Every structure is written in C-alpha cells, then in structure tokens.
Amino acid sequence: MLCCAAWTACQSNGGASHDHAHGTDVEAHDHASHDHEGHDHESHDHEGHDHEAEAHDHEGHDHEAGAHDHAAEADAHDHAAEAAAGEISLPAAKAAAAGVEVQTVTAGTFRDVIVASGRVMPAPGDETTVVASVSGVVSFARPLVEGALLAKGAPMFTISSERMQDGDAVERARIAYEKARAEYERDSSLVADRIVSQKEYEATVERYRTARLAYEAVARDDGQGGAVVEAPAGGYVKSCSVKEGDYVSMGTPLAVMTQNRRLNLRVDVPERYYVLLANVTTANFRAASGDKLHRLADLNGRMVAYGRNADDASAYIPVTFSFDNAADVVAGSFAEVWLLAAEREGVLSLPVEALTEEQGVYFVYVQLDEDCYRKQAVTTGATDGERVEITAGLTGGERVVTRGAIHVRLASASNAIPAHSHNH
Q1: How far apart are CA 220 and CA 170, in angstroms?
Q2: Is the Cβ–Cβ distance between 341 and 112 less than 8 Å?
Q3: What is the arithmetic mean of pLDDT over 344-352?
Q4: Does residue 423 contact residue 83 with C-beta atoms inside 8 Å?
Q5: Which residues, in sequence order, are CB contacts of 229 under 8 Å at separation 6+?
Q6: What secondary structure does DSSP assign to 348-412, as a single string?
Q7: What percent of the chain has pLDDT over 90?
C-alpha cells in the first residue's frame, strides 16, 4: 500500500515530488524495517515462550514419567510382598538336619472314632494272692517292695507262733506227723499177720498221709523258725498287705503277685454311642503313665465284651479289651481311649504331629519348593489319636510337612523372606 501511494504521488507531482516520495519511501522503509524488527522480536519472544513451554512440558513429562515408573516399582514391590506373604524360607539342608519330613496328601481309609476314657486293669488269672498258711507273727524272709521280681517257690514270709498259747504251729505239725508215721510203720508190720485188721490199717495210713501233708506245708528246710510262705508263681510283687511283726490268722492275705503278662483295658462309653459298639473291633489308647500312643492291634489285643446296659451308678456302658503287656503299661493307670469303628473311604487325613495350633485355629505347612513353605489353615474332623481327618483347607496332592512342623513354625518367626517370592 505504501508503494502504491508513493507511485501515485510521483505521478501527481512529477519530479519535484520525487524527493518527497523518496523520503517517504525511506521513511516507509524505515517504518517497515522497524515493523519487521518488532515482528522479529515478537517472533523471538514467541519462540522463547514456545521454548520455555516446551521445556516446561518436557520437564513435566519427565516428572510424570518418573512418577509413573516409581508407581510401577511400588506396585511391583507390593505384588512381590503380596506373593511372599505367608511363605516361609527354610533351606533344605537345615530342614533335613531338623528331621523335617514331607508327604503327599492322598485320600484313603479312615475309621469312625469314639473318644472315651478308661483304665488299665490286671487281667483275671494274671494275679495271685499270697495268704498265710498258719496263724502267727509275720516276719519278712527278704525285702518285699512293690515291683520286686520273684521266682516260683522263693521264700517271702516266715510265720511263727512259737510264743503263742497254742505253741508253734510247725512244731505241732511235726509232732503229729512223727506220731502218725510211727503208727503207720507199726501197723504195716502187723497187718500181714492179721494182728491189725485191714480197716484199722487203712485208717492209720490216712492219718499218716494227712499229717505228712500238713507238716510239709508249713515246715522249713531246717524244720525250725516257723512256717515259710513261698511265692506261688513267678512274677512281680504288686502290693504287700502286712508289716513286720503283724499277727495274722490262717488264710489272711499277705501280698499280691502279678505276672504282668496280660492286661485289661476297661473303657466307659457314653450311652449315645451304644449303636456303634457292634462295629468296634479295636482301639488306640494313651495311658496317663506315659505319652506314647499304644495300638491294641500291635499288642495282640481283642475285645472281650461290652455291656448291654448302662452302669447303675453312671450313664456309661463298659467295654473291655484284653492285650499283651508288651508296652510296659502300668496296671491301674487311667487312659485316654479312641475306639475304632466302621471304615470310611476317600478321607484326607494327616498325622497328628503335622498340625500346629494358634488361638484355636489349626495349621499345616505346605511345601512349595525345596526351600519354601506356606502356612495353610485347615479344618479338622475326627481323630484316632494317631491321625486326624482334614475336612477343609486341603484338596489332595499337596506336599505337607508331617514331621518337624514345629521347626518350620520357628523358621516363620525368624524370617519374613523379604528377598524371596515364590511365583506360581
């Protein structure tokens, strides 16, 4: 537009106007240059603004990217921590040294169980009561303490009535025996000559034999010091009923001997289990005298009988088992008993020692790999004292710690495995 104006002015004013037009062009040129410089400056400012904005955007993008990376790392860390939660690190070498054993859980046979209490009793015929053969004062032939082992015929007591009113019983028996023997010898020589009748001779023989038996029953080897009471059978002294110097009458119990070969287990079963008793064939028990679990199946045990009615004094039905005392169980001790009834198939079960308990909740430890375990809560059912039924928490096929679970539990308290995670 300036150029058009200048050209018009030139045409109107001719040469005289050329200088003015030239000045105008210069001025216009200067103005245009000024405008161009201003425009360039504005462009420069715009470029600076864009550069700052770009830098700001770039820094913001980097910051957002760093924040995003940090969030990703935190998420990965949380994921690893979540994956490692509940897992326990225990090196295989340490587990083997601690006796940790692992088994694969499989379904199998399990029996219905009746839990009851009972008592171990001596078996009939296994105990013998030692009684006084004569009346008199007791003295011990040897120290008799409970549990002492005696052979058959071993002297136990000596009973003397030497200073009693009726005199010594052994001496009286000896006198009667010697008198009867003399009559027997005399009549034996006279019966052949018919001086003594056959009837009188037979009466003499009877008196002689009776006197000899009475004397031999109470006489000592040396024939002095009173009547000796011997052990009627080999076995152990269970109890002694007299003290040194006690006076006893003939037939008074002095001691009880037991051979301790067979024992009875008497179990008191609640009435509500009566219908299940017909299926009971054996039992497991743990006596109060020890912590070992005993299986009647391993002790030649058998059920003797079970009651058909409840005890008059209580609402319990007696069940009696007989077994060999190969386990050195103390007769008279109380016991916790698990009666085993009908079998069930397809039951998951674990040894009792595989479970640990915390605040009423039971746990097992599942092996994830050679060095890693996981704590698993389970729900239990019946137990036979040796194994326990698992009703929830396991599905079968898991490798579970069956021995040494306490060592895995201690390992869980000593490390949180921050650097270990198990990927499934």
Answers
A1: 9
A2: yes
A3: 92
A4: yes
A5: 130, 132, 133, 141, 155, 156, 157, 158, 159, 254
A6: EEEEGGG-EEETTEEEEEEEEETTEEEEEEEEEEEE-SSEEEEEES--S--EEEEE-HHHHHHHH
A7: 21
Distances (CA, A) of 165 to 109, 155, 169: 74, 26, 11
pLDDT score of 266: 93
pLDDT of residue 37 exceeding 50, the answer is no
Which residues does 152 contact at the CB level (< 8 Å), separation at least 6? 231, 232, 233, 234
Cβ partners under 8 Å of residue 275, min gap 6: none
Q: Which of 79-83, 122-126, 232-236 has the lowest mean pLDDT?
A: 79-83
Q: In degrees rounded to 5, what are phi and psi of residue 220?
A: -80, 170
Which residues of 271-330 form beta strands (DSSP E)? 282-287, 294-295, 302-306, 316-324
Distance between CA 234 and CA 230 in Å, rounded? 10
Asked if the model's pLDDT at residue 208 lies above 70, the reply is: yes
Q: Read off the DSSP letter of residue 330.
A: P
Reported as a single tens digit per residue, the pLDDT across 277-336 is: 888 989 999 988 778 899 999 988 999 988 887 766 778 899 999 998 876 787 888 999
Which range in 57-71, 207-221, 262-276 is most confidently predicted, on average pLDDT?
Answer: 262-276
The arithmetic mean of pLDDT across residues 45-58, rounded, is 41
The DSSP bridge partners found for residue 237 are: 257
Is residue 141 packed enough to be buried (19+ CB in 10 Å), middle (13-18) or exposed (0-12)? middle
406 touches 356 (CB < 8 A): yes
Mean pLDDT of 335-354: 92
Sign of CA dihedral 124, 127, 133, 135: negative
Helix (H, G, I), strand (E, B) or coil at 3: helix
Q: Is residue 139 packed enough to be buried (19+ CB in 10 Å), middle (13-18) or exposed (0-12)?
A: middle
Q: Taking residues 120-137, report their average pLDDT.
A: 84
* Phi and psi, residue 349, nearest 5°: -145, 155
Angle ∠(104,105,107) on CA atoms, nearest 5: 135
Cβ atoms of 160 and 136 within 8 Å: the answer is yes
Tokens (6 digits) for 276: 């299940």
Q: Which residue has the tokens 């225990």?
A: 90
Which helix (H) or strand (E) covers residue 345, if one does? strand 334-351
